Amino acid sequence: MKYYLVAGEASGDLHGANLMKALKEEDTEPVFRYFGGDKMQAEGGELVKHYADMAFMGFTEVLLNLRTIFKNLKACKADILAWKPDVLILIDFPGFNLKIAEFAKANGIKVCYYISPKVWAWNQKRVLKIKKNIDHMFCILPFEVDFYKEWGMKVDYVGNPLLDEIAQFEPEQAFRLKNKLSEKKIIALLPGSRKQEIERLLPVMLSITENYPDYEFAIAAAPTFNETYYHQFTGSKNVKLLFNNTYNLLHNAHAAIVASGTATLETALFKVPQVVVYKGGTISIAIARMLVKIKFISLVNLIVNKKIVTELIQEDCNSVKVNEELKIILEGEGRKKMLLNYDGLLALMGMPGASAKTAKLILSYIKA
């Protein structure tokens, strides 16, 4: 079978790679072509466009990069049409992928969507477009099934692929030694993988490091940037920079400060107490506040539908508040309470197997 996948950011690349691996277990002669990243490329097939050239965060950033986005859309549509896949698999990245879905459906190509767009968060009427243009939706969050049911749409709940990735993870025994980390307790800094979020969040994260001389700080660096890029923020601060090592970092971390996104859930699954931070452009956040219909921004809080982790958003994302909230989770009752709440989250998440389940379903739907 010929599979065309479209992933537009680091998390999509990770889940796309695991899905490709699972498809190879189910299909004796799979052929892959995709918009994605290094992890997907490692699974074989043909990388058409790297996600590093596609990911723009926030309303303002999207507007400023419209020419590039339209160019990427045009290139993707033309490539799909020329290649004629048996199925198109879209992975999250809704602003781009919902347009690709509409095009593919109009051209008679079967469309599967892996990892539902967060239509439950804002502009819920997009579900109508999803019903029209997507043949099969695979959801990874338990509450999404009921949400789609309210709109008269049947979806497949496959569990969360992060559980697959963490189940496969094998801790590096010499992690501290290899990365020249001391025996101090580690505070992990996860500022995201996109340029805009790194530049807004990392300075705030780094501003409190000198308040904790008894801890070691380490940044989970995005592979799409180099050391020189990060050094403009770290300067002379004694902060370690770790590339392609996020899970080993979380495995060894005592606490973390994390950019809102997939990383908040990963941090919770490793049972690392965290402070969640988010800061968007002024116009972007103003628009978001008018449109967003959810109580929380972190996946951790959304899944359990209550506050487990503190979310410091926009003006609250500052040195004073980050420092205050970090102190609460380093020791004592605040730390114990968060770890106890993580147990409830883990119970809701279920067991690994999302990638394999999705691969089986996709193949069955193609053959139907």
Automatic annotation (TrEMBL):
<keyword id="KW-0441">Lipid A biosynthesis</keyword>
<dbReference type="GO" id="GO:0008915">
    <property type="term" value="F:lipid-A-disaccharide synthase activity"/>
</dbReference>
<dbReference type="Pfam" id="PF02684">
    <property type="entry name" value="LpxB"/>
</dbReference>
<comment type="function">
    <text>Condensation of UDP-2,3-diacylglucosamine and 2,3-diacylglucosamine-1-phosphate to form lipid A disaccharide, a precursor of lipid A, a phosphorylated glycolipid that anchors the lipopolysaccharide to the outer membrane of the cell.</text>
</comment>
<protein>
    <recommendedName>
        <fullName>Lipid-A-disaccharide synthase</fullName>
        <ecNumber>2.4.1.182</ecNumber>
    </recommendedName>
</protein>
<keyword id="KW-0808">Transferase</keyword>
<dbReference type="InterPro" id="IPR003835">
    <property type="entry name" value="Glyco_trans_19"/>
</dbReference>
<keyword id="KW-0444">Lipid biosynthesis</keyword>
<keyword id="KW-0443">Lipid metabolism</keyword>
<keyword id="KW-0328">Glycosyltransferase</keyword>
